[in-house]
Design brief:
The protein is an alpha/beta fold and 221 residues long. The protein has helices spanning 2-33, 71-80, 98-107, 118-131, 161-172, and strands at residues 88-92, 110-115, 137-141, 154-157, 179-183, 195-200, 206-213. The model is unreliable at 1-12 and 15-59 (pLDDT under 50).
């Protein structure tokens, strides 16, 4: 009887061991098959870690959209202003820098471009380097209304009517005789241009160029 009980116990023990070994094999098999790396889900609204660098990609607020000036218009603007190598030309809203660069290439004019958009400034500097006139021109990232351009003998601009009118008082404070040339937009009824030219491009677009000289200020001796 005792031998029978002992035999039963051995069978139960063997079954128990077999079950343990099976579970262990299942666990090992599951562990080997699961090779994926757990990636924590990040809540977009959560506060970033302290060592995370946040880059502000906000574009500057521009008064005037960028529209490149046609080369035919550039030529006429420089011609109307009678630009020479003795001039200092400031281009307000200079974009890719084509007006100061063209003047430097043709006449040796010293030029400065002012633009609020850093992308345009990078393009202008690259274009100046390509044209080989970095010793003649430079470009300033800044606001037209806060930047001093009083040394200019020629001012070129392609802005908007409202910006021209806002800029007009600053232009009228410049040295008398300073030449001002605007693409497409005038300075209002109280400052008539000395010359107006109409240009038609081969593509059929029509452009206007206006020319002024800064007058003597009232009461000036």
């Amino acid at each position: 009887m005792k031998f029978l009980q002992f035999k039963v116990l051995l069978v139960v023990f063997a079954v128990f061991c077999a079950a343990c070994v099976g579970e262990n094999r299942i666990e090992r098999s599951s562990g080997n098959a699961n090779t994926n790396v757990n990636i924590p889900v990040v809540d977009p609204a959560a506060t970033p870690p302290a060592n995370t660098v946040m880059v502000d990609m906000v574009e500057p607020e521009l008064d005037v959209p960028y529209v490149p000036t046609h080369e035919m218009v550039v030529d006429e603007m420089l011609k109307m202003a009678q630009v020479t190598g003795n001039d200092v030309l400031y281009d307000l809203g200079s974009g890719d820098g084509r007006i100061p660069i063209t003047a430097a290439q043709r006449f040796g004019t010293r030029g400065v471009g002012i633009d609020l958009n850093p992308q345009r400034i990078r393009e202008a500097n690259a274009n100046a380097e390509k044209a080989g006139v970095t010793d003649k021109v430079r470009f300033i990232e800044g606001d037209l209304f806060e930047t001093d351009f009083s040394e200019a003998t020629v001012v070129t601009l392609y802005l908007l009517p409202s910006v021209n009118l806002k800029l007009k008082p600053k232009l009228l404070e410049m040295k008398p005789g300073t030449r001002v040339v605007s693409h497409n937009y005038n300075m209002g009824d109280d400052w008539k241009p000395e010359q107006t030219r109409t240009i038609k491009t081969p593509a059929g677009s029509t452009h206007y160029v206006y020319f002024w000289r800064v007058p003597e200020r009232s009461g000036a001796k």
